[in-house]
Design brief:
This protein is mainly α. The chain has four helices and no strands. Helix 1 packs across helix 3 and helix 2 runs antiparallel to helix 3. It starts with a helix and ends with a helix.
Length: 92
């Protein structure tokens, strides 16, 4: 398993990648367009595209969470290093 700092850095690269941003915006726009074009009585279609939109949002939120956890881990490691905690542990 990759440590939280590396995971956060990877998530940062993904989230801020212009291709990723464009892909999510386009996917969201497509789903919204499909939702708007559905007949009024198509409850199942509305349900499916609404769920698809939720999944797009969920994936993005997960990557943002990994980024936040990585930032937190990096801050904690920096603080520990400044206080000498890690240098003490490295002696063993």
């Amino acid at each position: 398993m990759i440590d939280p700092i590396n995971r956060g850095q990877s998530a940062h690269q993904i989230i801020h990648n212009p291709l990723f941003i464009e892909a999510f915006e386009e996917l969201r726009a497509v789903y919204i367009g499909l939702l708007e074009s559905l007949p009024a009585k198509d409850d199942l279609g509305r349900f499916r595209y609404t769920e698809a939109l939720k999944q797009v949002k969920f994936v993005k939120a997960h990557l943002e969470s990994v980024l936040a956890q990585g930032n937190l881990a990096a801050d904690e490691a920096k603080l520990a290093e400044e206080k000498g905690v890690l240098s003490f542990i490295r002696k063993f």
